[in-house]
Amino acid sequence: MSDQETDQEIIDRLTALRSQDLPVRGGRTMAYVYDSGLDGLDDLAERAQAAFAGVNGLDMTAFPSVVALENDIVGRAAGLLGGDDGTAGTFTSGGTESCLLAVLTARNHARRTRGVTAPELVLPATAHAAFRKAAALFGLTVVTVPVDPVTFRARPEAMAAALTDRTALVVASAPSYAHGAIDPVTEIAAAAAGRGVLCHVDACIGGWYLAHLPRTLPRPPAFDLAVPGVTSLSVDLHKYAYTPKGASVLLFRDAELRRHGWFADASWPGYPVVNATLQGTKSAGPLAAAWAVLRRIGPAGYAELSGRVHEAVQALVGGIGRIDGLRVLGDPQASLVAVASDEPGLDPFVVADEMRLRGWFLQPQPAFGGSPPNLHLTVTAAVASPGRIALLLEELGGAVRRARELGPATVDEGLAGLAAQLDPDTLGPEEIALALQLAGISDDGALPERMAPVLAVLQALPPRLTERLLPEVIGRLYRARTGPYG
Questions:
Q1: Organism's domain of life (predicted)?
Q2: Cα–Cα distance measured from residue 61 to residue 175, given in angstroms and rounded to the nearest whole number
């Protein structure tokens, strides 16, 4: 008896697994995925990706098509985002890799040109976690600067005051992920330039959208490479360029700066190695798919999609303002909206559970600093389709009413106090089990249908303890079983 499965059996298994996931089309998943709503686009991207799936981007001399595709994409991004013929760029696997490379490049630049041996990374408190990951990987000290408690934008004077002779890089967001606020890039970049410090703009989520807003709409604050003092910028294509996952661009003001982030090695008996990214071997499939989608939609198409998203955001913000118990945090300047509760008995995490039970995913964001617990909504072109915002607001109003009746998720104060006394650096199996039991995580790692109680516990614990526990939660999900395929 053969242990091989037929093609149809394999596809059936994959389909069954996929049925448990959030939908990636239709505009009901308001985080993680970006849907243009355009007919035929997915088919084109799949065909382009399949045609280049076996092409290895490791060696561009063996596969010159990689150079041609990347040069075209980087040129389009540079032209859109304030670059010129001297601008250099790299195609990466996503926003995290782009941010990692920006920090790595800045660290090496500071070391080689200024002799900085204990580099610092200056971040507004709202900067994406990818920058803290970069600091952890590459040995930089993070200097976190509080943001304005009302607008959630970085404060230029505070950012400037945080710069020292050890600062390798300062970061601004356009916009920040959590609240959709665009930092004052012009002022921050000027302060950085005055100290001889590099300045990176994280436009991963908003750059393509903001740059394509129709000229008839209000202009966003200046944020791109045309701003004096901005030395690098990241923009994801798999977000508002609506390409398949695995596509981002990191732009540098010039090739000389980009060179500080490359790795080259000829000190081994194999082939000479030169990498512009963290990856070595990498499929050119995402590169080809991104190239195809950019050409299919084109500048006019992106302007139309961005205009639709802008109108949808305005309608969404206005509609949320009419739902008793909810309020929008800050003043969203892009396509991201953060929604909090303005009454003690209404738990936004319970609202999220109610929405998910009806087929919507609104991303919970625990309280941190001056930001209260809230729900993150990413508005894409699919969310902006006719009738979708009205339906979303209707569902959200119903979820608020049900959440108010259910009441907020509660945490046992005694157990929470006990857990808060745990030392994250010395946790043993028993202490970990206690903390996870408090959070409602079973021994087999299965997550409960309602996540509000889990989030309430994680939010109540000290951040370092939460950071210690999160890998334990995920580690219980990823437990491979040996034996035959099943």
A1: Bacteria
A2: 37
